Amino acid sequence: MSTITLPLHNVSCMGCAKKIKKTLEAMPGVQQANVDTQQAEIKGDAAEPGLVEAIQALGYGVGNTFSMPLAGLSCSKCVAKLEKALSGRDDVYSHQISKTWLKANGSLSYDDLIAEIENLGYSVPDAQQFTLALSGLSCGKCVAKVEQAFSEHEAITEFAVTKTQAIVTTTLEKSELINIINALGYDVTDQEPPHAESLALETDTSASETDNRVSETETAAASNQNGGEHIQLLLSGMTCASCVSSVEKALNSVVGVEQVNVNLAERSAHILGNATPEALITAVIDAGYGAEQSEDEQARRQRQQAQNIKTYRTHLRNAITALAIGVPLMAWGVFGGSMSVNSTTSQLSWGMIGVITFILLITAGRHFFVNAYKAFTHHRASMDTLVALGTGSAWLYSIAVVLFPDAFPEQARHVYFEASAMILGLITLGHALEARARNRTSKALERLIDLQPQTAIAVIDGVEKELPLENVSVGMVLRLRPGAKVPVDGVIEQGQSYLDESMLTGEPLPAHKKVGHKLHAGTINQNGSLLFRAERIGSDTMLSRIIQLVRRAQSSKPALARLADKISAIFVPVVMIIATLTAMAWYNFGPQPTMIYMLVTATTVLIIACPCALGLATPMSVTVGVGRAAEFGVLIRDAEALQLAADIDTVVLDKTGTLTEGKPQVTSLLTYHDTDKTRLLALTASLEQGSEHPLAQAIVKAGQKEAVTLLAQQDFQALPGLGVSGIIGDIPVLLGNHRLMQQKGVDTRLAEQDARVIASQGATPIYVAADQQLIGLLGISDPLRADSVEAVKRLQAMNLNVIMLTGDTKITAEAIAKQAGITTVIAGVLPDGKAEQIVTLQQQGNKVAMVGDGINDAPALAQAEVGIAMGSGSDVAIESGQFTLMRHSLHGAADAIALSKATLRNMKQNLFGAFVYNSLGIPVAAGVLFPLTGALLSPVVAGAAMALSSITVVSNANRLRLFTPRQTEEK
């Protein structure tokens, strides 16, 4: 008995190690296998090549992996020469060679491999990997353009391109790479890429659903690779879109910051990068605002709620105080009372009123003036600047009239103390109502947070003890009683029950859970008592990750919001210029008394132009829309995806696991050349034993159903795009599609008619050959999901072109498509060809959403304008695509698109209202209607209108909370 030690890579967890151990110990000649994430130690008489193949068949790496450039190979003969040399070495397990690049895997050292190459007269030049931040790439077509340029260059051997970055392995210099990108019309920026979108790295999966095996390495490649740390700050002192611009500018100036999103509606900032929280908070404070960090979601929520309640009560109290003073003063003027200073008595009376309103300005209106002063000291202007100038100028003019009445013409001795009070009252009342409505925007997220209980029942030494959630650790055994919420993620060890997962997945039907099934924090146990082992706690639970993803998405900005921010950055200074020009025009060209007309028009312009509504227009819609989507089990990566999804016109659907159940079954079994069904099942099930692939499991289950005896397998090999091969006993067996049989010279004429019949019924024909002779034909069918037909009808009713994209045969694909009601089918496509099909559709002018499982379809998901990952809520699904569907139903894709369209429509309504309000309000306030009406807009009315515009925007955004996709479509 000997011991073989094999180094492992891409084994990410002990679960993977256990899978390898189980497979190895089932192999003939293996006495014992000790496996961890770094290596496998095998005792017995098994041969090393067979062990290596068994581990690789599971999707894990064995030995050392090399990837290096080559020089000196001028033709295919050179390539063949090197291939022959490496194939003759026992310590090289696999290799791929071109004239410019070598990929190899084996137990040999790097120096040994270099020596082998150099002994043949070739060399290995130095290669480098560059990560370039890109700008100017606006769609999938741009990405495809860069990818094509890279693929055509011999010195570029590996690359992954998204709209924001490119990762390139090449022997070129960085400047040469930049020149290639610049020649295409795009730019390379100096800063590090903010984060990578789902990278379309190469996935070594099979061509058809016949053998679609995916490794952990490929899964990781398809995932988002986010650089830097996410930090969230709670902000105070922000009042308008100009404040948002100022805070973002301050945060972006901090070293290490890669990306900043400031949300006016949430009064929060989300920062990606390597900057310290202290540096970020200091930058915000130096800019004249307040900031604090709250890392714990529960503490953040409590702090923000307390802050919102305090803000609402303060605004309401100040509004009542201001209106209590302003309303009687206004009523006095409306019902005939004199508002002028024309006697000593009136001078004393209005002087008292002036003192009262001054106290009001420095109490209820204090924050306007303090914030305006801070803005002034930082060389900027905000909404508070406009309010402070408007109310301050009205009060100063009035007190000047009271103190020095003789300095003014008799008709100009009008006082405007009521305007100062009413403007403060109405604007502050608007802020109070806005704050109250704003608290409702995150109700969906608050409900998610409320799902997680604060305690858990731990079973310690057989005794049940209730513990605070923070005291629960990984590996603890917990008790889940009927009606209780699951406290942490874990795996059931005893019992069975039905759990309500609707708040996580949107799926109304309870899910049946039994031993071995996963539980997720926040789901509700309906009946039955369960014992489960904690696997993920705290911020690692799926619920916490969902909350974090929703929070980030709510803080992100679509292109529409960035446009509004650019306008807001210059809006307030422009308004102040307009107010100044208005005052000058009325003073120089207006009728008598010019002083009064000048004051009224300038003040009214300042008050009515406050950009509150503009700053709230998009973040309010995004916050509500993303939260509403979460209620339907749709996770949205960022607001940009919302805007893109609203504009798509074509939906491409993967077949297996998207339209179908993803649980294939053997539905037909035909034999040839005197082979009986038992022998056919024994050979095929023995060949596929140990495989995790759904088709393989279907074959093994069919064998188990017939109680066949599984035989030992040797030399198992997965053949991408074709099938599998191996030796069962002493018999070489092939199992796969028609292309495999043709490639291996197996005569299939006997089964051609049967294969057509099986395919026409929507099943996949799988050929089986033994000793180079066809012995059987299996029909494996993956039935449509019960709701797929209805979901496809929904998508088509939304005027979307629905296409099925699959690696299955054309006949089978068309049969499934006919059942689903889909008329356009693209079949027989390799996994790497799916992305090419998306590119083709985009080149035809289509805006494409790809719906797939988030793993096998990663390149296509990344290529499409919008990637929608169907998933079970796994980590990979959450990281794949721009949308993740927490329930495995195509209805989720329809919901996602409908919600995106509704959210974008809501954003446009808000922006239209805000822009039109200011566009019409400013000229009217400046007096353009005076020649026609003989009247000017009162500053008080302007204050009411400005407050009403903000309330309208907030209320309109909150309408999304009532949006239900299917009900809307039925109208």
Kindly describe this structure.
The protein is of the alpha+beta class and 971 residues long. Helices cover 48% and strands 21% of the residues. The strands form eight sheets. The chain has a seven-stranded mixed sheet with strand order 25-37-36-35-26-33-34, with helices on both faces. Strand 36 (866-870), helix 31 and strand 37 form a beta-alpha-beta unit. The longest helix is centred in the first third of the chain and has 38 residues, at 297-334. The protein is elongated.
Task: Give the tags.
single chain, 971 residues, alpha+beta, seven-stranded mixed sheet, 35 helices
Chain-averaged pLDDT: 79
The count of DSSP E runs of length 2 or more, i.e. the number of strands, is: 37
Helix/sheet category: alpha+beta
How are strands sequenced across the largest beta sheet? 25-37-36-35-26-33-34
The portion of residues forming beta strands comes to 15-25%
Mass-distribution shape = elongated
Instruction: Please give the share of residues in helix.
Output: 40-55%
Ends apart, CA distance between termini = 74 Å
Gyration radius (Cα, Å) is 35 Å
Low-confidence stretches: 191-227
In DSSP terms, counting alpha (H) and pi (I) runs of 4 or more, how many helices?
Answer: 35
Main β sheet profile: 7 strands, mixed
